[in-house]
Design goal:
Length: 386
């Protein structure tokens, strides 16, 4: 069976920590949803097992044309299947290990303190989204890539390309990367040991990439992780500011922080639409035939609310025993930056509440919904005497 799922804006009555009603209906009825995105029909799957199927079964391809994204470009590994996809993931693997993220944690702590120094100097009262969540994530990502003054410039160019409201503007995203290509070529002649240096390196390496391939890998990482990482940091702060009992539990037992990060990733419906897969042969699912050539979108945030996997899934509980969640996708296309994201959320929350133990919300929190993402557009807070 299929269920119609409407493209939703952000209704003011929607709880900022709830999944979309249409997506919840698909989950609760155990069906496959029908959805239109940029004039192209999509099937939506919501249950955890269905998401695993679509993201792991070779009958659902990331490489087949979806009718939404532009023509395939060298290095854009999010649109590839194994074994081609594996070559590019192997090239970046060492930069995204848990060990690498922990090594970067010292830098992230210093960056967080620098942001908070500026916030304290100008306070009380600030918007944590631009001054802390976005700034801290950008500093960490630029450090990972090995970007100096190029970082803010590149981020501004990327922002100018985002926000597409039609299919053609989305397709142009894969065509307008001349500035990144120029950056990759410049890095070939620059000494360094950051991710972008290694993508561009032409020395002795078991996996050598052309300029175009390195540009595609870098562009994939930028679009897949940069904005979502910034938004997840701000969303996590909002969740703890909005649930004082959870914040109190964390204050009383700081050892809960790692489990709290996992619960934030599970609970917050940031990533509403996964990247489409294309069915390459007819598949029967819940009585609905998904035909070869049809697009299928996994609903990661909805899978994180599957009661068959998570007890009392709509409750935010940082003492919950961590289970595998779908915040970073599933299968071979799982987000490579997930360890860095965890460190960022951990440092951002710990340092904020240590520096400002009485920080609190200072007004309504408008929510921003982009293409598949849902998070606070502003997060105004204050501290000190009420």
């Amino acid at each position: 069976m299929s269920t119609e799922a409407q493209q939703e804006s952000t209704p003011t009555a929607r709880c900022p920590f709830s999944i979309q009603d249409g997506h919840r209906t698909i989950l609760e009825t155990g069906t496959v949803g029908a959805h239109e995105l940029f004039g192209v029909k999509q099937w939506l799957v919501a249950a955890a097992e269905d998401v695993k199927l679509v993201t792991n079964d070779p009958r659902f391809s990331s490489a087949a044309p979806s009718g939404i994204l532009g023509d395939r470009r060298p290095g854009w590994f999010s649109g590839m299947d194994s074994p081609e996809h594996n070559r590019y993931r192997q090239k970046i693997a060492r930069d995204f290990t848990l060990r690498a993220a922990r090594k970067q944690e010292e830098f992230i702590v210093r960056a967080a303190d620098s942001c908070l120094d500026d916030i304290e100097a100008s306070g009380p009262g600030t918007d944590l989204v631009p001054g802390y969540a976005k700034r801290l994530a950008s500093l960490a990502i630029h450090d990972l890539y090995g970007l100096n003054e190029e970082g803010p410039v590149l981020e501004g160019q990327m922002r100018a390309m985002e926000g597409g409201t039609d299919m053609e503007s989305i397709k142009r995203l894969t065509d307008e990367f001349g500035h990144v290509l120029a950056l990759v070529r410049a890095k070939r002649d620059e000494a360094g040991d950051r991710l972008l240096h290694r993508l561009a390196e032409s020395g002795e390496d078991e996996i050598l990439l052309s300029d175009e391939e390195a540009t595609g890998v870098f562009a994939t990482l930028l679009f897949a992780g940069h904005d979502s990482m910034q938004q997840m940091v701000g969303y996590s702060l909002y969740a703890l500011l909005s649930h004082p009992e959870q914040r109190a539990a964390l204050r009383e037992n700081p050892d809960l922080i790692d489990g709290a990060v996992e619960e934030l990733l599970r609970f917050l419906p940031l990533n509403q639409l996964g990247v489409p897969r294309v069915c390459v042969e007819d598949v029967e699912l819940h009585g609905q035939t998904i035909s070869a050539g049809d697009n299928v979108i996994p609903l990661y945030s909805t899978a994180n609310r599957d009661p068959g996997v998570f007890a009392d899934p709509d409750t935010f509980d940082i003492t919950r025993k961590p289970e595998h969640n779908f915040a970073f996708g599933y299968g071979i296309h799982g987000c490579p930056g997930q360890h860095l994201a965890r460190v960022l959320i951990k440092v951002a929350t710990v340092r904020l509440f240590e520096r400002f133990p009485d920080v609190r919300l200072a007004g309504d929190v408008p929510m921003n919904e982009g293409l598949g993402l849902f998070s606070p557009a502003e997060l105004r807070v204050t501290w000190g005497a009420e």
